[in-house]
TrEMBL record:
<dbReference type="InterPro" id="IPR020568">
    <property type="entry name" value="Ribosomal_Su5_D2-typ_SF"/>
</dbReference>
<keyword id="KW-0460">Magnesium</keyword>
<dbReference type="InterPro" id="IPR006204">
    <property type="entry name" value="GHMP_kinase_N_dom"/>
</dbReference>
<keyword id="KW-0547">Nucleotide-binding</keyword>
<feature type="domain" description="GHMP kinase N-terminal">
    <location>
        <begin position="69"/>
        <end position="150"/>
    </location>
</feature>
<dbReference type="GO" id="GO:0005524">
    <property type="term" value="F:ATP binding"/>
</dbReference>
<keyword id="KW-0808">Transferase</keyword>
<dbReference type="GO" id="GO:0019287">
    <property type="term" value="P:isopentenyl diphosphate biosynthetic process, mevalonate pathway"/>
</dbReference>
<keyword id="KW-0418">Kinase</keyword>
<keyword id="KW-0067">ATP-binding</keyword>
<dbReference type="GO" id="GO:0004496">
    <property type="term" value="F:mevalonate kinase activity"/>
</dbReference>
<keyword id="KW-0444">Lipid biosynthesis</keyword>
<keyword id="KW-0443">Lipid metabolism</keyword>
<dbReference type="InterPro" id="IPR014721">
    <property type="entry name" value="Ribsml_uS5_D2-typ_fold_subgr"/>
</dbReference>
<protein>
    <submittedName>
        <fullName>Mevalonate kinase</fullName>
        <ecNumber>2.7.1.36</ecNumber>
    </submittedName>
</protein>
<dbReference type="InterPro" id="IPR036554">
    <property type="entry name" value="GHMP_kinase_C_sf"/>
</dbReference>
<feature type="domain" description="GHMP kinase C-terminal">
    <location>
        <begin position="220"/>
        <end position="300"/>
    </location>
</feature>
Length: 310
């Protein structure tokens, strides 16, 4: 039996903007999706999905995951029938890179079962093919974070050549809270809406892109200097820019507001938006707990995690 795993991730800066070639910063979460692959006397594949999930996620994403698995199998030229079992402690939800974690885990498990001896770059290519199922035209940030882990800066090469991937280091991992809106959103749809908005109002949207471009440079420096207060302020600004491109929602805004009022250094939506998750920067166990409880008191579920771990 072949085994593999992929990291869940959270985007600290730059979801959506990353699609347009601007740099984004993501961190792997401690949680992973695991995959086991066994050769079987069947046609194609069979899937047993034991991942924990936000209610309704798997049902809503069924077709997208079928494409994801087919894409990975095709790219890795698997000619035999396989039985795939997914598991791990990453809760399948919008905004944690659940599909990318699954694609990375599956690619690693196939690599293992068929002794292909692919390196991480090649595994990342397979995971990117998988991501095209749920995303249509993914930037590549999710699968890169899922395969490599850690804290990284990602910049898509719009010309089709190699993307820029830079490992970043935090002096010390920092506590975060992820608030779950409980709603599953379609990345393909939301990315498409932003594209339309950019086509209809190019001047307005390009001004937002420009503002983000300056912001992410400041964010890189603040993370390097471990200036968490500054990182938080920039996360707040990033959320405002995401509101301007219409990818937030009332639930996400409510959780962001609640987190800030409870003392979070900064808060923003993370990932696709409209549904899915928000992230709050909450250094120290006490602040993390305070913010988590404040969001829970509003009726949302939360995940307590850390960014910047290895
Ligand atoms: O919702 P998630 O975790 O799959 O993140 C999507 C990130 C986007 O920037 C919106 C899309 C992309 O391909 O980068």
């Amino acid at each position: 039996m072949g085994k593999g795993s992929g990291y869940g991730k959270t985007i600290l800066f730059g979801e959506h903007f990353v699609v347009y070639g601007l740099p984004a910063i993501a961190s792997a979460l401690g949680s992973t999706t695991t995959a086991e692959v066994k050769r079987a006397d069947i046609n194609g594949y069979e899937l047993i999905d034991n991942r924990p999930e936000t209610a309704g996620y798997k049902e809503q994403k069924k077709e997208e995951y079928e494409k994801l698995i087919e894409n990975v199998i095709k790219f890795m030229e698997v000619k035999e029938g396989i039985r795939i079992t997914l598991g791990g402690n990453l809760v399948a939800a919008s905004g944690v890179g659940a599909s990318a974690a699954c694609a990375a885990a599956l690619a690693r498990a196939i690599n293992n079962e068929f002794r292909l001896d692919w390196n991480d770059d090649k595994i990342n290519e397979a995971a990117f093919e998988g991501e095209k199922g749920p995303h249509g035209t993914p930037s590549g940030i999710d699968n890169t974070a899922a395969v490599f882990g850690g804290l990284l800066l990602f910049k898509k090469n719009l010309g089709g050549n190699q993307n820029t991937i830079k490992k970043m280091k935090l002096r010390k991992p920092v506590e975060i809270v992820l608030g779950n809106s409980g709603k599953t959103s379609s990345t393909k749809e939301v990315v498409g809406d932003v594209r339309r908005l950019e086509e209809e109002q190019p001047k307005k949207i390009n001004a937002v892109f420009e503002e983000y471009g300056a912001l992410v440079e400041e964010a890189k420096k603040a993370l390097k200097d471990y200036d968490l207060k500054k990182v938080g302020t920039l996360m707040n600004k990033n959320h405002e820019l995401l509101q301007k491109i219409t990818v937030s929602s009332s639930e996400l805004d409510e959780m962001v507001e609640t987190a800030r009022n409870a003392g979070a250094l900064g808060a923003k939506l993370t990932g696709t938006g409209r549904g899915g998750l928000m992230i709050a920067l909450t250094p120290g166990k006490n602040l993390q707990e305070k913010v988590a409880e404040a969001i829970e008191a509003q009726g949302y579920t939360v995940f307590r995690s850390k960014i910047g771990g290895s």
